[in-house]
Amino acid sequence: MLERYFAADEGTKEQYMQQLWRPNYHFTAAENWINDPNGLVYFKGFYHMFYQHNPLSCEWGPMHWGHAVSKDMVHWRHLPMALYPDEKYDAHEKGGCFSGSAVVHEDKLYIFYTGAVQVNGKVSQTQCLVTSVDGINFKKYEANPVISEYPKHCGSEEFRDPKVIQYGDKWYMVVGTSLGKIETGGDGRILLYVSEDLYNWRFCKAIFESCGEFGTMCECPDFFPLQDKWILTFSPMYHPQMKKAIYCVGSMDFDTFEYKIEYMGDIDVGFDYYAPQTFEDAEGRRICIAWQNGWLWMPWCEDFGPTAAEHWQGCMSVPRKISLTENNRLRFEPVDEMEKLYELANEMQNVRISTEKKHFTIKNPTSFRIKLEADARKITSRAFEIGLRGKENRAALVQVDLLNNLITFDRNNADRYVKGRVSCPFDSENGKFSMEILVDKSSVEIYVNDGLQCITSNIYPEREQVECWIRTPYKEATIDRISTCCIKPIWE
Ligand code: FRU
Description:
Blueprint: H1 3-7, H2 13-18, E1 32-43, E2 46-54, E3 64-70, E4 76-83, E5 96-105, E6 108-119, E7 122-132, E8 139-140, E9 159-167, E10 170-179, E11 187-195, E12 202-209, E13 217-226, E14 229-237, E15 246-253, E16 258-266, E17 274-280, E18 286-291, E19 312-313, E20 320-324, E21 330-334, E22 342-353, E23 358-359, E24 367-375, E25 383-391, E26 394-401, E27 406-410, E28 421-425, E29 432-440, E30 443-448, E31 453-458, E32 467-471, E33 477-487
Parallel strand pairs: 1-19
Antiparallel strand pairs: 1-2, 2-3, 3-4, 5-6, 6-7, 7-8, 9-10, 10-11, 11-12, 13-14, 14-15, 15-16, 17-18, 18-20, 20-21, 22-33, 23-32, 24-29, 24-33, 25-26, 25-32, 26-27, 27-28, 29-30, 30-31
Bound molecules: beta-D-fructofuranose.
């Protein structure tokens, strides 16, 4: 049945490509506001992506679930709206069908989301169920909500974003909450529920507690096995260091519901990476997609960027494959399917660079990839800098400091809209360093050392900002390998 939609002609896509900031290969809604990816799932031969959507404006508003499908996670096709906020438990101008997830059971799609309303000015968030046999038509369960009350001793009315997984012969759900008030010192919690039939849910335990250290609310939690570990991820609100996407590697005891954390790291440290959700793809890989923007409570967010001028607001990161290293770190790398979009590759070896800008010639200078491998011992300067989307004094800068093993993304002079610089340390074995940068008009994703660190941020350059260069701050350097390629639009 979905084939019908794939055959459809999407004429407007030409227009997308003319726009200054609308990405070519990052998913955006046809129009208007999007935030979190929801219900990521592989079902009957298609990848489904739902997303928080306000179809009426470029601002956040009553939340619907937008819907798109893909055969390869890279080329997406928009489908009709999946969920409307039209029930007493989800119809509200400051609420709607909030984030959630999907699982497949006996050839049927089971979708869980948070019905968010306010009753007499008081927030009410409950967990609701929707089913679908074809992946296009959705039916809200008559007896919704399936979880109507938060546990009083370890939660509050901020109670949302159910993520469901199957493990053994049971279903488990994690839900984010806050003990107290989000803005005034509440404490984030992640609650675990269990079910035998997807309809009846029993509270088990809070498997994660912030204890003052990890923010006042845990939004969009996710919980899944990877090799012999259990991974817990979430987006904290008001984290003391303003982290926005955290992962924990640990072990889980399903008898006592005790989750023991062995390592905690950042999924991405950029300005624009929030609410990541994972799913298992057709080949059993664990894939992660996030919303590439931030909320106004984040210190650097004055607004959501200027793209409402182009009638869209918000995009999704490229899908990233997650893997676990021997020392409990996670790697996040663009899925191999992205290779389909790469063209006109140009590879250079032993590239000598100095304080003079060395420009790259890239045929499509707004949507491209740069990959680079370096050896600190060949870099007398011990540092180098890449300029992206540049012209005269304007550019976004990626600065690599191989003396202190620190990478910095600086967008202070990138455009007329956004500011700030963010740094993160990286490990380097014998001075080896590698980096992959994906630029897509207004989006920059940086993957360091095969995805051990990721930095994702938006910039809003002018049309003439098309230069890309590399240089050192002083002295010289030889970079072992640099390759560039253009990246084709996903709308073709
Ligand atoms: C995270 C979030 C979720 C909520 C949704 C509402 O970005 O705040 O917690 O379900 O957005 O759109």
